[in-house]
From TrEMBL:
Gene3D superfamilies, A to Z: 3.30.2220.30
Highest taxon listed in the record's lineage: Bacteria
Organism: Paenibacillus vini
Protein name: Phage portal protein
InterPro entries, per the entry: XkdN-like, XkdN-like_sf
One Pfam family from the record: Phage_TAC_5
Amino acid sequence: MSNLSAFFAQNVNSEIIEEVVISDRFKDEAGKPIQWKVRSMTEEENEAIRKSAQRKVKEKGMITIDTNSEEYLAKLVVSSVVFPDLKDADLQKSYGVMGADKLLRKMLLPGEYAGLLQKVQSINGFDKDINELVDEVKN
């Protein structure tokens, strides 16, 4: 039998924060690349983000839910980035944009943005193949 107390909220590492270099272009005073801080989130937070990127679409009398995947992923990234503070008005102003998602698109090169998205997906558990998860559960 397993120890059920391991699943109690107070015994679980509920938020993981990792530091990662997203770009070599952002350097500190010593010329070293500055690390970004990226955090994990709960499924409850993820669900709220997903719902905020959904729209009801009426087609031929039927109503369906359509998720804008680009909007969802942008909001997922923004919610996961702890540092730099993407909601900082001065930072947004320096790039001539309003909004954290627009700031990221202005700050980062396409490959850097893709790398950040990959890190966010990884820290939130989206990097595992379903077959790997099945094997883990078996063990």
